[in-house]
Amino acid sequence: MNIVNKMIDYTINRNNEVFGIMPKIDSDSLIVIVIEILSWLKLERKRELWIEQGKKTKLKPMELNMNYPWCKDLVQVFKMDNCFSDVFTIKDNYLMFRDDIDFEYIREARVMAEKEYKPEMIIN
């Protein structure tokens, strides 16, 4: 199962066992982590399409702001062996795919996030 499948499953079922061994993290923080990563992957897919269209842009890692509690929790996630640390890494406050991850897997993750992650719009 691709990491995106696991994250989308989590947004529906809120069962963190899908990720494997996880540190004790508040479920509210974990859902924010998952949503932020899925949103970043969707944006990266848009950037891929813009690049294909010849627009001036580039792919970017996800910047983490350690003033936010969920970013600190994300760092804790990466201290354990789990599906997040199998696919992503954190370098200099940026989340990115690990260097040893195949480009086809990365592309598939971006496409899958774009197609499968459809958050509900909140209207007041």
Please give a structural write-up.
There is one protein chain. The protein has helices at 3-13, 27-52, 69-77, 83-87, 103-116, and strands spanning 62-63, 88-91, 94-97. With 124 residues, the protein is mostly helical. It has one domain (3-116). Strands 1-3-2 form a 3-stranded antiparallel beta sheet.
Summarize the structure.
By secondary structure, the chain is mainly alpha-helical.
Question: What portion of residues belong to β-strands?
Answer: 5-15%
Helix content: 40-55%
- Summed up, the helix count is 5
Largest sheet: 3 strands, antiparallel
Mean pLDDT: 92
What sequence of helices (H) and strands (E) makes up the elements? HHEHHEEH
The total tally of domains equals 1
Q: How do the strands of the widest beta sheet line up side by side?
A: 1-3-2
Number of strands: 3
Low-confidence stretches: none
- Structural class computed from helices and strand pairing: mainly alpha
Task: Annotate the secondary structure layout.
Blueprint: H1 3-13, H2 27-52, E1 62-63, H3 69-77, H4 83-87, E2 88-91, E3 94-97, H5 103-116
Antiparallel strand pairs: 1-3, 2-3
Helix pairs in contact: 1-2, 1-5, 2-3, 2-5
